[in-house]
Amino acid sequence: MAASCHDVDVPGKPTETGTALLEAATGAIQGFAPINQIHQHLCAFHFYGDDMTRQGFAPVIHIPHPPCAFHFYGDDMTRQVEAHHFCAHLNEDVRQCLVFDGPDAGARLIGVEYIVTEELFLTLPDEEKPLWHTHEFEVKGGVLFMPGVPGVVERRDLEQVAKTYGKTVHFWQVDRGDALPLGLPQIMMALTREGQLRQDLADCVEKKFSVSFEKERENRAYMSGPAHGIHPLANAAGKGLKTEIREVDLPAANTGARIFT
């Protein structure tokens, strides 16, 4: 298949054989009901809301394994969402995930997450780092899990996830009952310590998937996070993040066409 016209080399090492085999194993075990509802590949063009000259398009990807975790809104930790990630490796250092609100065929696509290794995260500009969150507590705390995957296989992958950083954007605020994806995209964050996860949400997920976060916490006690420790600018640097919109003058494309006529 032809590459994108905007083809850019993604930094990172080539996907290792062990990673590919692990993806094949989880792909054979887990269900992919939301992804299996995708039956069309549409090609189109988008331009940035503040710059018509920047245009692009993108395809749907193959997704090998879906972890379940929790996200909270960058400006309100009390608003927490069950998030099912259907992820694929671009290479050994970069994963990209479609985020649904459930594992079933009727699940809603609510966002996306990009996951990078510590090595790549450290190369990001300082102004970018606060948009990324850590996964160490989610993994070691037992609240990020792979439904239906045997523990020994799951832990093999999560040992690596615990060291990574993620950037998540949600488009559909299902927690407030929106029937459609309304409003601005929202930067989401992840749990970083005990006592943050709402007990009602924890109880619901543990019952639904027959898992024990406490037991998984014990099983994962040996795991470690980023080699250099959690970067102080990650996790919004300990502050809140809110997405806002403002009007700007739109640079017109060379065609001279009028915008929003």
Summarize the model shown:
With 261 residues, the chain is α+β, with helices and mostly antiparallel strands. The protein has helices at residues 17-29, 33-36, 118-121, 136-140, 151-161, 199-209, 213-219, and strands spanning 46-48, 51-56, 68-73, 76-91, 94-100, 109-116, 133-134, 165-170, 186-189.
Question: How are the SSEs placed, and which strands pair?
Answer:
Blueprint: H1 17-29, H2 33-36, E1 46-48, E2 51-56, E3 68-73, E4 76-91, E5 94-100, E6 109-116, H3 118-121, E7 133-134, H4 136-140, H5 151-161, E8 165-170, E9 186-189, H6 199-209, H7 213-219
Antiparallel strand pairs: 1-2, 3-4, 3-9, 4-5, 5-6, 6-8, 7-8, 8-9
Our estimate of the beta-strand percent is 15-25%
Give the structural class.
alpha+beta
User: Over all CA atoms, what is the radius of gyration?
Assistant: 19 Å
Largest sheet: 6 strands, antiparallel, barrel
- Which strand order do you get reading across the main beta sheet? 3-4-5-6-8-9
Mean pLDDT: 81
Please identify the oligomeric state: single chain
Q: Write down the overall geometry.
A: globular
Number of helices: 7
Q: Termini, distance in Å? A: 37 Å
Q: Please mark out the parts with pLDDT under 50 across 5 or more consecutive residues, or reply none.
A: 1-8, 39-64, 257-261
Sequence of secondary-structure elements: HHEEEEEEHEHHEEHH
User: How much helical structure, as a percent, in the residues?
Assistant: 10-25%
Number of strand segments:
9
